Amino acid sequence: MPSSSTWEKQASKCTQHYSETQNIKQGRTFPTHPYFSIQLGAGQLSLYNILKAYSLLDPEVGYCQGLSFVAGVLLLHMSEEDAFHMLKFLMCNMGLRKQYRPDMIILQIQMYQLSRLLHDYHRELYTHLEQYEIGPSLYAAPWFLTAFASHFPLGFVARVFDMLFLQGSEVIFKVALSLLGSHKPLILQHDNLESIVEFIKTTLPNLGLVQMEKTINQVFEMDISKQLQAYEVEYHVLQDELLDGPSTLSQSQRVAHLEKTNGSLRQQNLDLLEELQVAHAKIRWLETRVEGLVSQETELHLEVKTLQQERAELLQTVCNLRALHSSLDINSPCPALENLTNTSTNQ
Fold it and tell me: Per residue in 116-128, is it b (16+ CB within 10 Å) or e — as a string?
């Protein structure tokens, strides 16, 4: 398990990396794709409209470069209005907005969780990366902030988005684990920080169809939800230990640290409240859906009962016609009557 000092260093790198991505201009979103490559073209204008609308809806998150890739992928598959609603669903209902907040605490936790998962699932690779002080923040932050859209083929990204809508942000951890694990032999061949990071950033994303399918299949087989919860708690425990341990901080610095931690805890409480509200809303929707289905079932039962009554009346009519036919002693058969009789007999 990484030490507290190591993790602090990695968290600092993660924050620095994100600050750099904030300076990237909107024109850098899918610059080679025909839909977005034309300056002030339809693609760029639609992208601007969506990001502007979301920044007004959610001032705390506002605009950040990673979000433009997520919105861009949605725009490639639907109208501008639908893309906005789907972006809002991903951010608010699926919980992605937490990782885009200015304090970046959630992203730091995610980097720690990914590091611990690597330790559990791919110990040899984890040790190799630790040897060169390569934490997930050096290569995986864009994966989380753009849902793999900034570096990977759009066909693969579309599959990731499908799973993201189905399973939530946990999918990004699963895809990252699968990709790193499948490329482990190649990563282990590199023996310095620069070449390892360069390989993960540039070579690893060039996936073939076979590798894509393998990754998708592995994602559906993995279940890491309990581990993610445990590692989030572990992260906070490590932060508390850092705060409680021997420190050279002055009184004012310690107070500032306590205030920051307190603010973080308040934000966590707000996040939990938000998740609870989303869960309650989903429960209410499901209850309404169940009521609708019960109502439909009742209507169908009544309709079936009515049809059964009509059938019984028709059968009685057939019997009456047979009796009338016999009483009149008609030798030539009536085709229409024969057909109706055969139908009632088959039923």
Answer: bbbbebbeebbeb
